[in-house]
Amino acid sequence: MQFCSSICLTAKVPVRVQSLHMNSTTVNDPSSIAAVPVPKWSQKTIVLPPLKRGCHLITSKIVKEIQPDLSAFQCGLAHLFLHHTSASLTINENYDYDVRDDTETFLNRIVPEGPSAPWKHTLEGPDDMPAHIKSSMFGCALTIPISTGKLNMGTWQGIWLCEHRDYPTARTLVVTLNGI
Amino acid sequence: MQFCSSICLTAKVPVRVQSLHMNSTTVNDPSSIAAVPVPKWSQKTIVLPPLKRGCHLITSKIVKEIQPDLSAFQCGLAHLFLHHTSASLTINENYDYDVRDDTETFLNRIVPEGPSAPWKHTLEGPDDMPAHIKSSMFGCALTIPISTGKLNMGTWQGIWLCEHRDYPTARTLVVTLNGI
Amino acid sequence: MQFCSSICLTAKVPVRVQSLHMNSTTVNDPSSIAAVPVPKWSQKTIVLPPLKRGCHLITSKIVKEIQPDLSAFQCGLAHLFLHHTSASLTINENYDYDVRDDTETFLNRIVPEGPSAPWKHTLEGPDDMPAHIKSSMFGCALTIPISTGKLNMGTWQGIWLCEHRDYPTARTLVVTLNGI
């Protein structure tokens, strides 16, 4: 591993640190095992109803499904994994619908679709190969920190499901929670 | 964190939940510590042989390497991390070779290469700077859920290694398994 | 899950394995609980000073902040999560500044900006919608393996913060460490 560059060395404003949780002190003391928060795992499969082609905010849907488990974690990670190769998960703006609409516009401009597109894989329709490409561009998985029983995201962040097919189907997600 | 949008509120089809694992009940009871599944960690460095420029399905190769450890996890996460900046890992279609070929076509169309490309970083060959860009587009890491001793992916999902250099070399991955 | 393709089946060079850590042997033996490394969690919020539009190497800054905690982990994962939708995190080359500069050039060429751009979301300035798109292209999160107290990255890999706004602000990251 190599470190740093001229840019990060010359930054003048100090880095500020706001919070820290650590539970390693009693690890080697058998008499205090009960005091060590034992890590918990939770895993749930969620099936989302079909959503039309485009980008959709699904934060509240996801949180509603995992809330009972989520609230038990003081510190941890939430992992969302989509079981599909023609849709994607991303984190982006949670307020203005136009941002989702413009993102769909971008994806359609950057990935050719239709008779002039160069794809060999066309058996499943003209929107299928573009959907596969968009799925790898944004990815099918997210990992989000958990703090004090909640997803620890920024004020303007939300979870998006991007549906890349014209005739959408239900979409399956595996949500795995891990923490203390 | 802010929740929801008009779209997810108006979805008519109920979300279906299929499975749930949780092991928090005995955490504060010292007499039952043996009943709490103690989290396990496994970490392995795998070196893949050189693969030609393009997208390659490597699911079986990866699973073969981690199988003995993987089968011991009832619930967890598998993390794959590529040690390189000119190749990438992604999850996409596992059946039709054309999908991988079309994805390589897309990457080559979207990232300029050759004399007319605008890159300043050209010392390592005309394919090097495009390779770095493609690496950040798809990313060098994947996290996949583990359920009952197996990678819990969708029917059509596979793990791809995308080699972005013309003269490929062996590629190193660190695979970390964590779970109960 | 489906496995393999013609390509990975025909690879001639054997996969080499370099290291393995595993701690599952004593899990069901209550008398040996003290011998099982109890997983640790650490979570920290870091505020980075404003950085100008472009790609910046921040590895040393991040490592400096998490070093005291990081060194306590023999095996684990480090998760970095940016609290913003107009900047991104990625892993790429850590040596030549031109690689970062060329990546910024690529992002600006691929995402239209200015009067001719097709965006509806323009209230927050011409650079705002392009910034959201770039944020989803590279993503706002990274997961990196930890081995023997250090981030286990490749020789040429570094952590980049990509600032996509013209008038940057301080950026908040949540760093979560988990391991044994």
TrEMBL record, chains A, B, C:
<dbReference type="InterPro" id="IPR035917">
    <property type="entry name" value="YjbQ-like_sf"/>
</dbReference>
<protein>
    <submittedName>
        <fullName>Uncharacterized protein</fullName>
    </submittedName>
</protein>
<dbReference type="InterPro" id="IPR001602">
    <property type="entry name" value="UPF0047_YjbQ-like"/>
</dbReference>
<dbReference type="Pfam" id="PF01894">
    <property type="entry name" value="YjbQ"/>
</dbReference>
